[in-house]
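ok so for the tutorial part 2 we go from a plain amino acid sequence to predicted structure tokens. step 1 is just haveing the sequence, like this:
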Amino acid sequence: MRTALFFGSFNPIHIGHLALAQYVLNFGDVDEVWLVVSPHNPFKSPKDLAPAEVRLEMATLATAADDRIKVVDIEMRLPQPSYTINTLDALAKSFPNRDFAIIMGDDNLEGLPHWREAQRLINGRTFIVYPRPNRHAEAKPIEEMGGKVVRLDAPQMDISSTMIRKWVSEGKTPRHFVPNEIIDTVVKTYGA
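step 2 — the prediction. this is what the tokens look like for a chain of 192 residues:
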């Protein structure tokens, strides 16, 4: 079974995340997408993060209608901050018969050779890359390290969790930008 891992803070999850997961399911040659809710991304400040349990609950509610999209909490049981290679090691141990690909934006691809244990992370792995505004990172360094880059022409949605948090803190509604199932939680969590 081929599983695509979509890592993120999901702070909060929004329709852009869900649309991308669905696009990967439709066009990415995968059987399922797992949203890996990161308790603390080493590249981001933890000060703006809602509690991991709240973000996990919102992602679970937002994806409940599609059994091919699963939310996993494995990073919440691993040492912090979360490093992708550690998560992959833990997943490979728990699910040895799965082929794990990684979904990432074009903006993250160029930095991948500098991630923790990059050679081991990249070698033999497929990276499903979606476009980001004004970005097109070169795939050659990843391929030279033994990885495979599959570019998807996914639609670009200019929506961010940061934008949604800002709106909610200003008393604006996130309706139609986050799934209906989590609107109340988003307002309660990020509201003024």
